[in-house]
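This follows on from our talk about sequence and fold. Please put the record directly below this note.
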Amino acid sequence: MSFAPPGPGCWERDTAHFPRPVTRLCAEMFSAHFVTGFREGARECAVLLDHVEWRTVNGFMFMSPRPVGAPRGVSKLPPRLLFRLIIRLHPEIRRRIRRAETVFTDRPWRAALEEWDARLKPASVRAHLELGRIEPTTLDADALVAHLDRCQAQLAQMLRQRGRLTLPCLLPIGDFLAHAMDWTGLPSTALLRPLRGAAPVSAGASEELERLVAAVRRDSGARHDLDAAPPEAIRRLRHRGGEVGAAAAGYLDLVGHRLVAGYDVSDPCALEMPALLVETIRGALEHPGDAGGADDVDAVRARVPAAERGHFDQLLAEARHVYRLRDERGLFSDLWAGGLLRRALLAAGARLADAGRLHAPEHLLEATSEEIHRLLTGAGSADSRPPAGELAARARARAEGCRAVVPDGLGPSIPDPPPAGWLPPAAERVSRALRAASDAITREPAAGRDPAVLHGLGASRGVYEGPARLILSPAGLHRVRRGDVLVTMSTSPSFNLVLPSLGALVTDFGGTLSHAAIVAREFGIPAVVGTRDATRWIVDGARVRVDGAAGEVRRVP
């Protein structure tokens, strides 16, 4: 398998969100709609980045930053004199530099969070619940096509929404990290600990789950229902009637159709993995959790120069205020909409398979949006509708691609940011904040030299020893058992359904602000992320010792 740059410029592999090959539908929609929203957020936050372009190579997602005013494919900074001339003459750069002078006093992320809480999130939930109440298997052919169109339009809107909120939720966190690193010399692994407890949704918290747990505690029969096999346990809770049944229905309506293990329609929804839902409910019954973070704040603050502690408190307060939006914007936007689209596609795929036009219902997930429409409506010529064998081949290629050795980058290296002093102070502060946040999401440590130890980033403190459960694809999540050490490529915010039963978490990819790191910190389980080789170095079932403070994983004889 060969890898060539998909276009001019420098390209980095996006392992934080897409560690495995993606479907064509996912690539098509993400590249169009998330990018549109990202552009809007970049303008609001005065970031000198127009957008990030995403393209696939052999099914793997690669991304390339596109600075404002830079020619497409630029791979290095211009000389300083030319750079200064550009920022003085380019109208959009000038506008953003002026905007940067007020961005940390106007705090647009607060307005974004207020809009999220007051309008965007409630509207998203209503739309998702409305679509979720429609059972696609009961629709006739025309109604099913219309339902698919609605689901796809909803996902497009949610991707744009998530993209628009990306920079508003990252900028205050990055600003806190950039300043705190200067003051304390501490790495982001230590500086992000004081944020623990500020994102309860990342630990699966919701009013719906609280109501269900309270109802089950008052009903001994409901507790007995949870001891049944997972599919039966879920069925019994939902149909129990009374307070438990209503609470169970409310909780399952909230989380049931969310994609669990990624951002692609090829990833399963929670309702397809009832064992995970049962473990989440059991975990909430047994471990209500704690807010955490207070001791970590004191430890970090003590290292800040006395004259800067007031500023430190302000920056930390801003970071904590917006922290939950990083995971919420996905959980209530595209992860939910993507799951609803998946359900509709599988229903449509089942009809095509029954008619002999597909080898399996899930093969419809391999088609583009135009191909899906033509397969279901018969529009276009026969040549424009992919045959069953072609879609089956795409599914096999994606599955086999998971084992491929993929380069981290294609084309020239991404250029360094402008040196200190090249930008006006306010614009430079914005640039440093974005860089600090981006590094915390994606930057992984250099490989360690000890072959007996797997090195990564200590994302969540604690030491745990237990059996490794190697999960290379979402289909394997049903194998996770209570007390396992989950070893996987990367995770999404919806992994909060998996973590309550885990002893520890180890990932190949991701930094200290990756979703895996956030969720592990909120649950308070040891986690080591960004190891690069965990899924190759650790054998399924092997006993391992995870040190979340040192960022080390060791095999236990």
